[in-house]
Amino acid sequence: MLILDGVTVEVAGKEILHDINLEVKPGETHVLFGPNGTGKTTLLMTIMGFAGYTVTKGRMSYKGEDITTMPLHERAKMGMGMSFQRPPTIRGLKTRNLVALCSKMGKDPEELARRLSFEKFLDRDVNDNLSGGEIKKSELLQLMAQDPDMVLLDEPESGVDLENIALVGEVIAELLDKAIKHFNEPMIEHKKKRKKSGIIITHTGFIMRYVNADVGHVILNGRLSCANNPEEIFSCVGKFGYEECVRCMV
Ligand SMILES: Nc1ncnc2c1ncn2[C@@H]1O[C@H](COP(=O)(O)OP(=O)(O)O)[C@@H](O)[C@H]1O
Ligand SMILES: [Mg+2]
User: Fold this and answer.
1) Residue 134 located in a structural domain
2) pLDDT below 70 — which residues of the chain?
3) In this structure, what are the phi and psi dihedrals at residue 88, rounded to the nearest 5 degrees?
4) HSE-up of 218 (CA within 13 Å, CB side)?
5) Does the residue 95 lie in any domain?
6) Cβ–Cβ under 8 Å, residues 9 and 41
7) Domain membership flag for residue 187
8) Residues 118, 137: contact at Cβ < 8 Å?
9) Distance CA 156, CA 138 (A)
10) How many other β-carbons are positioned within 10 Å of the β-carbon of residue 140?
11) What SS3 string covers 120-163?
């Protein structure tokens, strides 16, 4: 689905990511861990194609097409979608109108918002005076409308209160086709049916209770240091810290 081959990225004339190799297969969800300022957001912004994130070495492909220099809107048309860590406020644009614009199948914004208990915010300008948790819901609402095949989530649970976290987790699981499998369906069959892929940045690991993630990585100093069981990485980082965790270099 998505392949990064030796990708090196510069932001504002400074090399932030070095030689990133990553493959996300159809149906897989990857989780990214790493300390603050290590390049996690930069990696998602680069995959999505934001201006200012310059790939100086390596290449990226998505659905078999080279996207290294493809503009952001074309990547979005190919089914890539992203929720931001800190999205901007857009004055003069109502959330309802943005959701309607994003909607692939002409879905009703009201109906989508109901799933997130977000109806009362539809007539506000996008992200205007919203709390941290409400902003995360607004981001998810836009993604629900867009229904992307490749879902990029930058800290989707930060700022979300304990009562809402289950709701946010369930919606993310739906976006990723990870909704609970039928009780007698073998896991391998369930996985085969899944088409959507995702990359999720998380500090708290809460989201892993709702999304059965397949692969975990640690980014340290702009380098992607491993590919391993996400639960194991999370517990290793919790016990020993990031620096110790990447020593195993699997
Ligand atoms: N637009 C920018 N201009 C200058 N430096 C930037 C810019 N964006 C990110 N950086 C720097 O790149 C590094 C990685 O940032 P980021 O990817 O946001 O980290 P993370 O998401 O892991 O916390 C940080 O040192 C940050 O200050
Ligand atoms: Mg970040």
Assistant:
1) no
2) 178-193, 249-250
3) -80, 160
4) 26
5) no
6) no
7) yes
8) yes
9) 11
10) 25
11) HHCCCEECCCCCHHHHHHHHHHHHHHHCCCEEEEECCCCCCCHH
- Virtual torsion, Cα 223, 225, 226, 232, nearest 10 deg: -120
The tokens describing 178, both together, are 């990870």
Residue whose tokens read 């289950």: 166
Residue nearest to atom 13 of ligand 1 (CA): 37
Q: Given this model, what pLDDT does residue 236 score?
A: 87
Separation of alpha carbons 142 and 132, rounded Å: 16
- Which residues sit with their C-beta closer than 6 Å to ligand 1? 11-12, 16, 34, 36-42, 52
pLDDT tens for each residue of 65-80: 999 999 999 999 999 9
Asked if the structure places residue 12 within a domain, the reply is yes
Ligand 1 atom 4 nearest Cα: 12
Q: What is the CATH number of the domain that holds 73?
A: 3.40.50.300
Quick one: CA dihedral 189, 150, 1, 227, positive or negative? Answer: negative
Ligand 1 atom, smallest distance to 52 CA: 1
Residue 65 is part of which domain span? 2-86+152-248
The bound ligand whose nearest atom lies closest to the alpha carbon of 39 is 1
Q: How many domains does the chain have?
A: 1
Query: Does this model's pTM top 0.85?
Result: yes
